[in-house]
């Protein structure tokens, strides 16, 4: 660890130490507002630092990259953390949670996600993954007054632990077969058949894939998702749905760009995973009567689609996937932000009955939710469409017509369930009860997400150009 | 001699683990596992990793498993009354899994020349490991230290008693 | 095109798309004040109509090249451009859209619930339709193609009848399946073209010259066809329409039948045929047979309906069958007839849907069992009903006949048997339309209470339509004039 | 001592399977966690053996860090166990099935 | 004078119709009435004024282009030639009288504006047929008369039967229109034009087989409007309309449109002997069919309706026999006396207190104004073909043409014509006896007859009785004026020796007398109607309605049910719903995996791992490790 490394690590350090500092302050000073403000400020400073301070080296301690791609995601997750905190403000104050702990955990998770997105070493990958996963274990269950939160925490924790087991064993096998943990080498040496241990390594990659599959809820490892989304409070759910998944996918994209040929052997497996995931998510969401569970299943479909993009072993695919991740993160966060902003003493609106006719009480946020859902579904003009378009484009270019057709089928089914919610919001029969009017920070997050959905939908060039320049 | 010892230790490890996972009394299970980990620690030692062996005993057997034991005692967990009668549905994947994993292993050992290469005769001095840890991998150590810090917070947040009147 | 494109010109076409969009936004901003929303919507649609009329009068004459063309970069990564282009066909459709939208907005005047939303959706729909008719880049086109669905979906699902949710979902998903097929085909075409020429672009004009193998062309054509046939809708892909039209609110039905259905046929003309000429040539006979089957099937089905809205829905399908038949004949006269028929059908059937809505407002029913004798109670309304019914069944001198006879004259030259069969369908049209008229306006009055006859607003909707129906029936030449050049070019296998 | 690398891996694989068996068969949360520990130890065994095979330090470093992380995770997990016990007085995993579908 | 002014002839009634339609109800009643009569009378006057234009090759006037697309270039164009002129004159003239009559007839009805508008519109449409220069304009009128008859038959719309009768008329005639439409399309495809004269000029170039088919198509089209077998079922029901309507539409004008069409296309039709025979056959069958039906009818207007069909059958026979002049001659005289008969029948019905059944009349000669009886009788003798009446000469001309036709088959048609003449005389006098003779058998109270309903009868009676003068045969000293007027359009020259002609004329007179005598014998004193299967069969028009119902209507409705309920609802919607259910049931199955139990979730890990291992094994076995 040299000074250069530390400098290159600056944004993450800001997040991690800022979090720690707020934790310390929070131990004595229990007033939530300044702590939250501090947390948001820290996250924003981290984002600014990542954007403004050029890294002196492109590599940090051999474990992480500090290149543009890594920085990009660092900014994204830092901003996400800030948004997550903004959305969580009211939740923390109303539930009288420890603001210091909450803020520090979120910042810590953001640091973990940022590191994960830039991992170039299997050890770094593993550690970063564990870092934010641990934070989420705690965050999900942080509301100790809520039965469902406890259950969600337990499910996430146990599944996570098992996934960690798979991950560790997989990495071990990769190491055994290649003799290195540094990513490009680990992949390259396997194809070079150094020592002929390639099959073990392949099995190792498979096991890693299972663990990753759990994190980004690929079928059949997705079963926890709806329960956890439902149980976790919306601000945490928002982070879980966006950051935790996005960071893993970003890491996958990074790994893929570093480890090209090894994935070649995994293609058919990935193909199967992608297909099953898209279908499982779309079909599972069909019968849902709870918006958060529906969003969970929808995230499953989206991860399947992402995997399609990943499968395309070219820059098109990587760019498409990255674009998709960003868009998905923004959109999903928007959805959870709307849910959180409507939460009141009765809790968050979740069951469809609570949403019915809400458009007449809260027209703006309902309309925004509809827009977000349509973006998730992939309506042209929204960012979601461009994301799907990019992925399908790349997939067709790589010849995955079958996957595209499955994706199309899943999209049709997705439209069905998203539209059902959209209809529900504006059903006149039984006007819903008034929910919370929302606070300024919540509105700000919703507004930013909405704007992003539209801007990236109509002018995706901005983001595409950026990604094109950043891709490793 | 040591080669034979390795296999003996391996068998002890597996046997102890098997005992562990089949015990109905969690205390017994943990004790069996501790025994297994001792054997594992010795295997580490034989593979030329004395420091890891020591840590296995100290951290795993000594700290983690004791922590388990502590919790079991604290919560006063009785041996489970409900017999664990796993139906065939739960055995089936396991049986298939074990069979196929073993098949894979056998195939590899038989087919793969690299798997037949000998290991051993390698000794990594604790000093070298320490240098690696606090040299190249200092950043990882720092991350783990953060991890431990937040784990502490988490344990505190989750583990403290529920507020009055809200514990059911 | 080259000279036009280089000339700096006022972006009329963008204006056509953006005006309603702006109107929709303004409506939403005034969501608390229904009266202002109505005025805003009316003003917007009037403005759009004014622009369309201006274009018709001052830019309507052409020799088959683009009348107006706007082109600028949009998403350069995928070669997607912001291209709006107008030829004679598009001009006609734009004019129809602007006109029908005025009627729709007047018709929606009485909506009580969520007025701002309703009008915003109507205007959004108009923007979408304008985009469909003008966009000349595949992805840009697709954008509008889908965007136009959303307002219609909400119009049906929120303001519709008893089965609205089901109908709305069916409508949306059914058309969506087709659209997705088209999307996949679009991307595939893009890649094939890119691989061949190195130029990756979605601009239709550039894609025209892609070399495709027979199999490729067939599959891609099928993809496009899926979208357009469902939207048209050809039998047997039509059941969504009957439900959607029946359940939609009045203004929604008007737009759906008057405009949205035309987009399918427009897509065939604008995209599917020029892009895949060989596949088209192979497919035309099947298309003709499908159209005929649809013509008869829908006419028969219409005869069996009791709900007058559903009957009209089937009549729409039947008429569109004739339109498609004209296209399948691949003959200049038939094409011009089809295009004219699209316009006239939009107006006549649209007017009938308006009348159904007015009848429903007064009598609270749409069942022929419960209606009758309206001539004695609301003579003006009944007169218009009779008038438009007659126009719809193709009475010479009224609008539909002009289109129909051109279709038949043209089709007979290419496929006499088709034309003869289609003529038989004309009797069927008379059968169900007269049954409708008989059930609604003749017979004894069903209730004693007096019903109000047409109000000024309703006159404002119906009278221009009636005049237009007479005009189009007797002197369609001004509306045919912009078509001559364009159709000739299209039939020759190219686009300007 | 000289043993074929494959034999070490075979031991590890067997251990992993035993751990997985524990996870899948046992219903008590604590036992499931113990199963996870077994799986992690199987990974450790592979790391150490590979470290010897490649004559490198990295594998052992990973094991050390893995232990630390496990410790952290176990700490949180056990806190969760205590928390759940307080809520429900049971540690049978399937009892926590308030959400489903 | 400018030819374009010819357009005033049809446009005047149209203008008046539109004015009445739009403002009729808001302006004084008198205004509407004056408007209506002026429109038609004006057209009549204009026709006289423009008479000179018809001489020679006639005049052609183009108003503006209607349709232009590619090779299609169709204008609104009129052709006022020697065929059209007398027809125009007849239509406008008879229509004027009928309008006058209608003013009287409708004076108690409040819905007069619609009535007069439709009446005027009807005249306009008929004029469009008559004056059409091209087939499309003809078609416009063709459909137009269909529409107006629809509106007028169903005029008293509150009775659903009336509306249904109107619908029936429209639909059945539209079936005929389809055939005309096919002919139109085909002719356009063959000749590239729709101008009737141009088509006739090019007719010789069309291959004979096609000519046959085209002629048959035209014939079928004509059958629809002229209520000939097989498209005759609508006419009898059409009597549901007000009597002036019956007089106008179903006696004088609309039903003659078919004959006029065939005459217009005579150069084309006459090219094919087969087609000519078919025309004659249709005419003959209709003539005898309608005559038999008329013998058993009980309603006065239905008797007249069937007689119209029968007489139009004669006109068809005339065309078939090749004499356009003969057909037109009968058309004209028939128009006069049939309009007269209908209008008189309207008066009779008025007198009988809106009673239609002739068996509930009787003695009306004494009940009403005596001139009514004489007017009716004048019409009747014309219809029956008593010597020296207009009907006698025109009918005789047709029989002569049939008799002298070189084809022996035409003798059969001639025989049918003769038999029909006998039947005609019989049922005509049956009508006269039942209505006017004996004592009043009804219960209704007579309405007063306004003057306007009475005096328009006289000109018509005069025209009917003296109609023979228009085309008096040479051998009785006439000049065959009509025949000469038509010139080249007159069709075949009917040549026969004077002996034959005198023989036929004697036969005709004898037959008419025989019919009268038979009726005298049978109905001199009142006898109740026969109730036997034969009369029931004839009363129902040979069960034609039932036949049509079974052959066409029922299959149509059951097909409609099949398409709508069977195909769309059950099959298509059922398939879609089934697909939706299938997909959502997959969804339910998948969701059942999310049991909420951790053990399930964990075993999903195991299954996933298993798949991975399976794939791995496969790879190992296949690739030997690579």
What tags apply to this protein structure?
heteropentamer, C: 496 residues, mainly alpha, 21 helices, 2 strands, 75% helix, D: 101 residues, 2% strand, elongated
Task: Give the oligomer, counting copies of the same chain as homo and different chains as hetero.
Answer: heteropentamer
Q: What does the main sheet of chain A amount to?
A: 2 strands, antiparallel
Q: Quickly count the helices of chain A.
A: 21
Beta-strand portion of chain C reads under 5%
**Largest protein interface, residues of each chain:** B-D, 91 and 70 residues
User: What is the end-to-end distance of chain C?
Assistant: 7 Å
| Widest β-sheet, arrangement of strands of chain C | 1-2
- The number of strands of chain C is 2
Counting DSSP H or I runs of 4 or more residues, the number of helices of chain C is 21
Largest sheet of chain C: 2 strands, antiparallel
Shape of chain C: globular
* SS strand fraction of chain A: under 5%
Q: What is the mean pLDDT of chain C?
A: 89
> What is the average of the pLDDT values of chain A?
89
Helix content of chain A: over 70%
- Strands ordered across the widest β-sheet of chain A: 1-2
Task: Label the overall shape of chain A.
Answer: globular
Class by alpha and beta content of chain A = mainly alpha
Overall description:
- The complex is a heteropentamer of chains A (472), B (168), C (496), D (101) and E (626).
- With 168 residues, chain B is mainly alpha-helical.
- Chain B has 2 domains: 2-123, Up-down Bundle (Four Helix Bundle (Hemerythrin (Met), subunit A)); 125-162.
- Chain B has helices at 2-22, 26-46, 50-75, 88-111, 126-134, 138-159, and one strand at 118-119.
- In chain B, α1 (2-22) packs antiparallel against α2 (26-46).
- The mean pLDDT of chain B is 84.
- Chain C has a domain at 279-496.
- In chain C, strands 1-2 form a two-stranded antiparallel ribbon.
- In chain C, β1 (68-75) and β2 (80-86) form a beta hairpin.
- In chain C, α8 (164-197) runs antiparallel to α10, α8 crosses α11 and α15 (332-363) crosses α21.
- Chain C is globular and about 75 Å long.
- The mean pLDDT of chain C is 89.
- Chain E is mostly helical and 626 residues long.
- In chain E, 72% of the residues lie in helices and 3% in strands.
- Chain E has a two-stranded antiparallel ribbon.
- Classes of the chains: A mainly alpha (472), B mainly alpha (168), C mainly alpha (496), D mainly alpha (101), E mainly alpha (626).
- Chains in contact: A-B, A-C, A-D, A-E, B-D, B-E, C-E, D-E.
- The A-B interface holds A 1, 5, 9, 16, 20, 23, 60-64, 98, 101, 104-105, 108, 115, 123-124, 127-128, 130-131, 134-135, 137-138, 141-142, 144-145, 153, 195-197, 199-200, 203 and B 104, 108, 112-115, 117, 136-140, 142-144, 146-147, 149-151, 153-154, 157-158, 162-163, 166.
- β1 of chain B pairs antiparallel with β1 of chain D, so a sheet runs across the interface.
